[in-house]
Design goal:
Bound molecules: zinc ion
Number of helices: 14
Order of helices and strands: HHHHEEEEEHHEHEEHEEEHEHEEHEHEHH
Largest sheet: 8 strands, mixed
Helix content: 25-40%
Number of strands: 16
Structural class: alpha/beta
Strand content: 15-25%
């Protein structure tokens, strides 16, 4: 009678059904408990907002991370110091003077030098790619602003980013080698809005350091049309960005200790810093929230043998200092696998594993009903930027939960990276997949090694 009443109640409430007979007992609570992912994300973006390494927001985020981990019941919560390079954006103004006045949605690229006093006034010269820019005769580029107009391709797996990123990273040095005064690039992003996408650039040794900015895709279209119609385009550019030396930030670390101290560590990583234009919701507040919620669920489940260690890395965006510091300090510890969430709020769509053992096969079977496909073709998960040094220096195996990134690069590194853009349902879907992978890796000591 009681059973009937409970069953009726479950049906009436639309609650998820209890574990199927073939499912492990831990699966239902890990998968089906009411998610707090969005609450964690809202808390971070409201408490710290933009949090570029070394900025006031970055310091607030470290404090937030410590408080949140303790509130969620994680143990051994600590901040491990990381020295970061500080870059400050300052005021910026980029506008078309001719053929007709037009204020561009533009922003400096991270690490760019500023413009000289009074700014730069110059004609632009367009190139469709870095190779096209390199091929232009020097006298076409000298004394001008180079405009690299390469369009990023939208893709579910985000591969267009890898194809386009060199324009952002190296455009200034390629332009400077031909005598350009500055470089502007079409945003590395897939939206058609008037948001410019920032991101890290660097200068090659031995080449003049010239200012570098991106402009929104919609504005790049305007410039490209004028140029295609033979119009001469002149731009005024003022960037107030500058370096401010070094500062202290921290990797924020907390654990769900395993029952066997010798059984090793499952590392769940995300990065706590963000670019300064938006509020770091999709990049990487989403990953932070996913990993904290996964750990919270595991803390309330039967304790696995292995330790779950959540690492919220410092300074992924502008130099990877947190990932390097963690690898240097912890390479000798026994990490079973490292997993990172740094691809926003998209649904989980794929699983990549370091091998095809029976344990990983079991994980794939649990994820399959969620629409997550096991990529058996590769033994080389990509990991994430922050866990890259640990993989390279200490050969720690990686596993990937691939997310749907179709929308990710519409928002990535823009002023529009705010909580309002987050899709709660897909965020929670991804979180469930990460939580299942993490719990499996921590508990299946025979199958996953
Ligand atoms: Zn990121």
């Amino acid at each position: 009678m009681l059973r009937c009443a409970v069953a009726l109640l479950l049906i009436a409430c639309g609650s998820p059904s209890s574990a199927e007979p073939h499912e492990p007992a831990w699966l239902a609570p890990i998968r089906d408990a009411r998610p707090q992912t969005f609450d964690h994300l809202q808390s971070l973006t409201d408490a710290a907002g933009p949090r570029l390494a070394g900025s006031p927001g970055d310091r607030l985020a470290v404090q937030w991370g410590l408080n949140k981990m303790r509130a969620l019941g994680l143990e051994n919560v600590r901040a491990e110091p990381v020295t970061v390079h500080v870059w400050v954006r300052g005021e910026e103004r980029v506008e078309v003077i001719a053929p007709v006045p037009h204020r561009l949605a533009a922003t400096a690229l991270g690490n760019s030098v500023g413009t000289p006093p009074g700014g730069i006034d110059a004609e632009i010269v367009r190139a469709g790619s870095l190779d096209e820019l390199r091929a232009l005769p020097r006298d076409r580029v000298q004394g001008k602003i180079a405009f690299v107009d390469q369009i990023m391709e939208r893709a579910r797996d985000g591969h267009g980013y890898g194809d386009a990123i060199e324009v952002r990273r190296n455009g200034a040095s390629v332009a400077a080698a031909s005598g350009a005064l500055a470089v502007i690039i079409r945003s590395i992003g897939t939206d058609s809005s008037r948001f410019a996408h920032t991101g890290m650039m660097r200068y090659e040794d031995g080449v003049a350091q010239i200012p570098a900015a991106s402009i929104s895709n919609a504005d790049a279209d305007v410039l490209a049309r004028w140029i295609a119609n033979g119009r001469q385009v002149r731009i005024h550019m003022e960037l107030g960005c500058h370096d401010e030396g070094e500062a202290q930030s921290a990797n924020v670390i907390g654990e769900v200790p395993g029952t066997d101290a010798n059984a090793g560590i499952v590392l769940l990583g995300a990065h706590l810093d963000s670019w300064d234009l938006g509020r770091g919701a999709i990049d990487d507040g989403a990953g932070v929230a996913i990993m904290l919620e996964a750990a919270r669920r595991i803390r309330h489940a039967p304790r696995p043998a292995r330790t779950i260690r959540v690492v919220l890395f410092a300074n992924e965006e502008n130099g990877l200092a947190g990932g390097r510091a963690y690898a240097a300090a912890h390479a000798s510890e026994r990490h079973i696998v490292a997993i990172e969430a740094d691809f926003g709020d998209g649904r989980a769509i794929g699983l990549r594993t370091p091998n095809r053992s029976a344990g990983w096969e079991r994980v794939a079977t649990l994820l399959e009903p969620m629409g997550v496909e096991w990529d058996r073709s590769s033994d080389e998960p990509e990991g994430g930027a922050d866990i890259g040094p640990l993989h390279e220096d200490a050969h720690v195996p990686l596993a990937d939960v691939d997310q749907d990134g179709t929308r990710y690069f519409d928002i990535h590194h823009t002023a529009n990276d705010v909580l309002t853009q987050i899709d709660r349902e897909s965020l929670d879907h991804a979180m469930r997949a990460f939580a299942i992978v993490a719990y499996s890796a921590a508990s299946d000591t025979e199958g996953i090694r």
